[in-house]
Specification:
heterodimer; A: 12 strands; B: seven-stranded mixed β-sheet; four-stranded antiparallel β-sheet; 11 strands
């Protein structure tokens, strides 16, 4: 069964608009972490934001915020005021603390239109 | 702090040839990972080291892939012989400990392998 699901293969968004990238996960481990990474066309994997399963508040990092809904097992990434440089692949990943491995979604290709 | 270093950046080889990739993790990072990322997909873990010991290599095709991390610092990943389906980006990542820290895993720039 898929442990990380990203249902949006691709998205087009107008510059300066906010965008939400969806991620749902499946785990029975009570302790886990959720990550979002950005991968530009150059190939490097850039860490954006992290949410721990026991964190009470949603994580925020600059223009990035994570909409964590534990009961629904969703961890959507919100990018406010999108910029042309945000065009990239975005991956959601989960680490179950029982094995410390990152499990990855298939990614969402985000294209920001000027 | 220096990042995760990988080389080469690009490699083109013919099928049945051998190839090796090198990774130098962030100083002090005990855990090192090799991932294979095929175009259009998320990364797939090939092998995870804790210091110089293997934690998980269940998805490593051991008939052709091998990896080592001598002295618990840098690591090499080898493919011998290569197949067309090995064409992918090979990403190396490191983290402080098995307990992934809040800031997770730091990735290198990757090696883009093309097998022709």
């Amino acid at each position: 069964a898929q442990k990380i699901t990203q249902t949006q293969p691709g998205m087009f968004v107008q510059e300066k608009e906010a965008v939400t990238l969806d991620c749902t996960y499946d785990t029975s481990d009570p302790s886990y972490g959720l990550f979002w990474y950005k991968q530009p066309s150059s190939g490097e994997m850039i860490f954006l934001i992290y949410q721990g399963s026991y964190d009470q508040q949603n994580a925020t990092e600059g223009r990035y915020s994570l909409n964590f809904q534990k009961a629904r097992k969703s961890a959507n990434l919100v990018i406010s005021a999108s910029q042309l440089g945000d065009s990239a692949m975005y991956f959601c990943a989960m680490r179950e603390d029982s094995n410390y491995q990152l499990i990855w979604g298939a990614g969402t290709k985000l294209i920001i239109k000027p | 702090e220096a990042g995760v270093a990988q080389s080469p950046r690009y490699k083109i080889i013919e099928k049945r040839q051998s190839v090796a990739f090198w990774c130098n993790p962030i100083s002090g990072h005990a855990t090192l990972y090799w991932y294979q990322q095929i175009l259009g997909q998320g990364p797939k873990l090939l092998i995870q080291f804790q210091n110089n010991g293997v934690v998980d290599d269940s998805q490593l095709p051991k008939d052709r892939f091998s990896a080592e991390r001598l002295k618990g610092v840098d690591s090499t990943l080898k493919i011998q012989p290569a197949k067309l389906e090995d064409s992918a980006v090979y990403l190396c990542a490191s983290s402080l400990a098995r307990l992934g820290q809040q800031y997770g895993y730091t990735f290198g720039s990757g090696t883009r392998l093309t097998v022709v």
